[in-house]
Design goal:
This protein has 442 residues and is α/β, with parallel strands linked by helices. 36% of the residues lie in helices and 17% in strands. The protein has helices at residues 25-36, 62-66, 97-106, 123-136, 147-151, 153-157, 170-181, 190-193, 226-229, 238-250, 272-282, 301-309, 324-329, 336-349, 369-380, 405-409, 416-422, 426-436, and strands at 4-9, 12-14, 18-19, 40-45, 70-71, 74-77, 90-93, 112-116, 141-145, 163-164, 209-211, 214-215, 234-235, 256-259, 287-289, 312-320, 356-362, 385-390. The longest helix is centred in the N-terminal third of the chain and has 14 residues, at 123-136.
């Protein structure tokens, strides 16, 4: 054994949080590479709802709970001073703090601690994890990675981590971690990163698997940072994806899998279609879910039929707006004609209207109340389920640069609830939710 590595997925600090097939996939891949090279790996996932120390809390629809999703345990904590005007409780979501501390007390000291942070406005959890790591394991080197340091590297460096990984490119991440452990972890090409299975075996129990078939997105939407995180779109061989799914089914006993792709259907004839064909042929009791939303433009009649036969149970279409002007101004990802064609193909394949959910982006800079109402009415006219996706300011996007400077500098203001109240759209949001009948924010 070369040494001990602790993979740490810290708490979420937020006004709201929900486990919608949320797992630290990149961290689990990284741990798998280190394990392959002889390191002993331990996982501390403060957001794992099936952890023995996590109090159970129901949340979400019965259907989502059946798929493994649900609410997190929440400990109310003081709000940051500039959030005092927001009439909502601020909380630390995940395993109760004292129970995590008790676990750290009995843990063998790691040589390296890898902390991830998903959203830029969740950094308080990562900072708390660093403080605990310094207190309990002063000799360990502590590294930070994830979306937060990739989008806000200077902000992340102020806390004193031994290494801040300011990229999400898998090869660069692995190489940077190699500099800390004193080992050459450089890989030849990106496909080499996915030659291991993510370490879901570190969990005592797990309710679902998450799968990534590609990196990046061909579009440059003005509200999304996908192209900043992954400048080049890349797809895994579908055979490798299938092997990972079958491992989850046969070895871990998983029945539900969620796709994490930003552009799952892009060039689907070469990737997703043959994958679904083989899944259909195997006829295993599996169910697949698309929480990120899919591009309506790429829904063909063939793809819709394969998705139905392969048991895709959660379909979410990304429309964002039905305004042709805003569709063009925000990146040209979809048109109303493409959206309507996708809905028709999906319904013809067998999906009921109430099973098709549609993301509408709420409250981005420049949008009007009239446009938002029209978008809701448009979706409801097809008897589909609208889901309000609250606008969250994302660094390095063109819409982000329209925000006040103080909001750009403080990542806590990237929080969708905080921005909702700061922009004054909270009253309209509540009215739209009532009109939509069960709409939720993403």
């Amino acid at each position: 054994m070369k040494g001990r590595v602790l993979l740490w997925n810290p708490w979420i600090y937020d006004f709201t949080a929900f486990d919608l097939w949320a797992k630290p996939l990149g961290l689990l891949y990284l741990g798998a590479h280190l394990k392959r090279r002889g390191w002993e790996i331990t996982l501390l996932d403060c957001l794992h709802r099936l952890d023995r120390e996590m109090p159970q809390k129901l949340g979400g629809s019965r259907r989502l709970r059946a798929y493994g999703c649900g609410g997190y345990w929440k400990e109310v904590v003081p709000k940051p001073s500039f959030f005092q005007g927001i009439p909502r409780h601020f909380g630390r979501y995940g395993i109760p703090f004292e129970r995590v501390v008790a676990r750290l007390r009995t843990m063998e000291a790691p040589d390296l601690i890898l902390i991830t942070c998903g959203m830029t406005y969740w950094y308080l959890g990562a900072v708390l994890a660093l403080e605990l790591a310094r207190s309990f394991f002063p000799r360990a080197r502590v590294c930070l990675g994830g979306v937060y340091p990739a989008l806000c590297p200077e902000h992340a460096r102020q806390w004193g981590f031994d290494l801040v990984v300011d990229t999400t490119d898998p090869l660069s991440v692995l190489a940077k971690v190699g500099t800390v452990v004193g080992e050459d972890l450089v890989l030849g090409e990106i496909g080499d990163f996915f030659t291991v299975f993510p370490l879901f075996t570190l969990y005592e129990r797990v309710a679902y698997g998450v799968v990534l078939t590609s990196l990046g997105c061909p579009f440059r939407c003005t509200y999304c940072a996908s192209r900043n995180l992954y400048p080049q779109w890349w797809r895994r061989p579908w055979q490798a994806v299938l092997e990972e799914i079958l491992f989850g089914f046969y070895i871990l006993g998983l029945r539900h899998f969620a796709f994490y792709d930003d552009a799952l259907l892009y060039e689907g004839e070469e990737g997703l279609v043959p994958l679904m064909q083989e899944i259909i042929r195997l006829n295993l009791p599996l169910s697949f879910h698309l929480p990120n939303g899919i591009h309506a433009r790429y829904v063909t009649k063939e793809i819709a039929q394969f998705m139905y036969r392969a048991r895709f149970s959660t379909i979410r279409l990304s429309l964002e707006t039905n305004s042709p002007l805003w569709q063009r101004k925000t990146g040209g990802k979809v048109s109303n004609q493409e959206f309507e064609k996708a809905v028709r193909y999906l319904e013809e394949a067998g999906f009921s209207p109430e099973s098709l959910e549609v993301y509408l982006l709420f409250g981005w800079p420049g949008s009007t109340e009239e446009e938002l109402w029209q978008a809701v009415e448009y979706v409801c006219s097809f008897h589909l389920v609208p889901r309000l996706a609250l606008y969250s300011p994302v660094p390095h996007t063109s819409l982000f640069r329209q925000l006040p400077e103080d909001m750009q500098k403080e990542p806590l203001w990237h929080n969708k609830i905080a921005y909702l109240y700061a922009s004054g759209n909270n009253v309209l949001y509540e009215a739209l939710q009532k009109r939509g009948g069960g709409m939720i924010c993403r």
